[in-house]
Specification:
Elements (H helix, E strand, L loop, with lengths): L1 E8 L14 E3 L2 E8 L3 E8 L5 E9 L5 E7 L4 E8 L6 E13 L6 E8 L3 E3 L4 E7 L5 E8 L16 E8 L3 E8 L5 E13 L8 E13 L2 E8 L5 E8 L4 E9 L2 E8 L5 E12 L1
Antiparallel strand pairs: 1-16, 2-8, 3-8, 4-7, 5-8, 6-7, 6-12, 9-15, 10-15, 11-14, 12-15, 13-14, 13-18, 16-21, 17-20, 18-21, 19-20
């Protein structure tokens, strides 16, 4: 198990925020379910309430056989989702979750700030994989990542025959995101990666504050079949984002930060136990 911890200060010194009861990280989750007819592609947007940042998003209830084509931030308060359901699959329903976060604070207190990053289209070689790193600006830390595996396609197609691209790993430390995209086709394909980075900002004349972020990665055995895993942040912390790294034979059904926990759904198509790396990023004010 690996852990990283960092303190982000909204002032020049590591001092605690006074009146902690009046200033905490609020962490609602916005859920949405969508029907996916066989042989179709569906695109929709999920938005956080006013004054909340959409720090991360993911699939909260998996739909077997459905492919995630796009899961990307859209402005400060929303994520866009795009899924494909092939003709060989029956009608499905998929559920997603967007982690909405803000600091409940009195006027003049430090507040959260979100920095959204996006790569240019990255070419994934034929029958190969591409590792992509997104570096957060100084003074910020990674929250949720995003991906668009079909950036040149329109919002709707007559049918869906599957995608040659698959995100095999999405992880972070306290400075950067890491993505691993696999291409099963005999020709190159492009993908676009996204990263949300967060920090504290301090209004002029306000009291100092600090944000503590902890990233924990656990090696998790996955038995044959479909399994759901859940990990919780410590009391007083809330979940900021989830990540994962999949070994061969493993397929991700979903991964999302929900309240103070992370949730993953993983299928093992082999006959024996396989290991996965599951990552949970937690945050609190201290």
């Amino acid at each position: 198990m690996r852990k990283w911890v960092i303190w982000l200060c909204a002032a020049g010194a590591l001092v605690a925020v006074p009146a902690a009861i009046s200033q905490v990280v609020l962490a609602p989750t916005v859920y949405h379910s969508a029907s996916l007819p066989s042989d179709s592609i569906r695109t929709f947007t999920v938005t956080c309430p006013a004054a909340y940042f959409a720090v991360s998003a993911g699939v909260s209830k998996a739909a077997p056989g459905v492919t995630t084509l796009s899961l990307r931030p859209a402005g400060a308060r929303a994520f866009v989702f795009r899924f494909g359901n092939p003709s060989t699959n029956p009608d499905r329903t998929i559920s997603v979750a967007v982690a909405c976060r803000k600091i409940r604070a009195l006027s003049g207190k430090p507040r959260l700030k979100l920095v959204r990053l996006k790569t240019k289209p990255v070419l994934v070689p034929a029958k190969g994989q591409k590792l992509v790193v997104i570096q957060c600006p100084n003074g910020t830390v990674p929250a949720g990542g995003g991906v668009d595996l079909a950036p040149r396609r329109g919002k709707a197609l007559a049918g869906f025959g599957g995608s040659p691209l698959e995100l095999r790993s999405q992880s972070s430390d306290l400075k950067r995101f890491g993505f691993d995209v696999r291409n099963t086709d005999s020709k190159p394909h492009a993908a676009v990666l996204y990263g949300n980075c967060v920090t504290l900002v301090r209004p002029a004349g306000s009291e100092p504050g600090r944000l503590q972020v902890k990233v924990t990665t656990r090696t998790t055995p996955v038995q044959p079949g479909l399994h759901t895993f859940k990990r919780s942040c410590l009391s007083g912390w809330v979940a900021l984002a989830t990540g994962y790294t999949l070994a061969p034979k493993l397929t991700l059904g979903g991964s999302a930060a929900v309240g103070r926990a992370g949730k993953w759904t993983i299928a093992n198509g082999g006959v024996g136990q396989v290991l996965a790396q599951l990552q949970l990023t937690c945050v609190r004010l201290a």
